[in-house]
Please model this.
Amino acid sequence: MSNRQKRFFLSEEEIPTQWYNIQADMVNKPLPPLNPATRQALKTEDLFPIFAEELCRQELDQEHAWIPIPEEVREMYKYYRSTPLVRAYGLEKALDTPAHIYFKNESVSPVGSHKLNSALPQAYYCKQQGITNVTTETGAGQWGTALSYAAKAFGLEAAVYQVKISYNQKPYRRSIMQTYGAQVTASPSMSTRAGKDILTREPNNQGSLGTAISEAIELALNTPNCRYTLGSVLSHVTLHQTIIGLEAEKQMEMAGEYPDIVIGCFGGGSNFGGISFPFMRHNILEGKQTRFIAAEPDSCPKLTRGIFQYDFGDVAGYTPLLPMFTLGHDFMPANIHAGGLRYHGAGVIVSQLLKDKYMEAMDIPQLETFDAGILFAQSEGLIPAPESCHAIAAAIREAKHCKETGEEKVILFNLSGHGLIDIPAYDQYLSGSLQNFQVTDEQVKANISKLDQII
Ligand SMILES: *Cc1c(COP(=O)(O)O)cnc(C)c1O
Model:
């Protein structure tokens, strides 16, 4: 009993040297992104003005299953990787379940979430190409934080557009980005044409991810040696995140187990795909029967209640058309605390895999996610990010099911980040003022019906 091993680590040599590109092994490949003006499939070069060239190649690569991790990136990974795989004995005991529960703890990264796994290579490929400046948008601030640190690590200047309402309501995230040396601007701002247009029309506009994306892309297109970066949704982002699942595969082997169920919370799909795809390859190639569950908020249920269809990746309609599960690009999710999950669509790889039934999705009400977060904090000691609470809640549902059936299933979930900067959300929960925000079928239907006009 007392000798049970709780945490599993890899040595520096065992940290993976390649990322896994599931596109190469997929039976049905994702449909191509389309240029909205011509409806033609996008070519790699079409993306060069926006992203570093190597990232554009990775984005559309359906051929190479293994992509080498550059040595410089792997050296940076070594500052915090491998992240621990933890057997959640405390949570198992609290639930009195026969299930074996494991979690991969990505909250130990210097910025507190998995997002650094992609920020580092994105900054690296920019640097390697001679780019000097990177730009992005951030809502709650997790991605902006990761990019700010990664830019500094590779000697780039970072300009982050933060949605104005978050800029004012979440001052600590802004301070963290500024501490890493980034220039943070509340969006909409007077520094871009898009921002000026909005503010001229509406001086009190509080911003949205849509406005912040437009400003960041405009800056990238108009500034020599500047590129835009994105923290989720795109296929190259999920590719970088497979470091999570590749490590977990080796660590589960050290624990002498293989997961029956793999769970990740779901915003655009990068941490879910990151932990899942390395295991899913055994389902695709060898017929293994592992279940993969994406846990999404019931207030933003694109996987469980959206439709599969070409749609824009952003609210304003600037991006290519992407074949995705979507609620419609102008869907306005309720203001839940899991800011990283408030996105209308899903990445193209995950969308195809869901359509082909390689994975499932579960939608969870906000209060249940915080119930789960509190139980996890009290049984494992870690305070999870509100986003990660969705994965925990899904794991708890499955573990309770095991208790009913007496099955000793092995459950693995990803702890995508810690919640130490989200304490006001916990405060609200503890004071009883937190609520659920279900969307009605009518709302979903009304928003989706607008999509017919796109394609
Ligand atoms: C951004 C974020 C998410 C959601 O993004 P994915 O791309 O779906 O992983 C989840 N958890 C945390 C902690 C985040 O910062």
In short: The mean pLDDT is 95. Residues 191 and 215 are 8 Å apart (CA to CA). The pocket of pyridoxal-5'-phosphate is lined by residues 113, 115, 142, 232, 265-272, 340-341, 385, 387-388, 416-417 (CB under 6 Å). The longest helix spans residues 235-254.
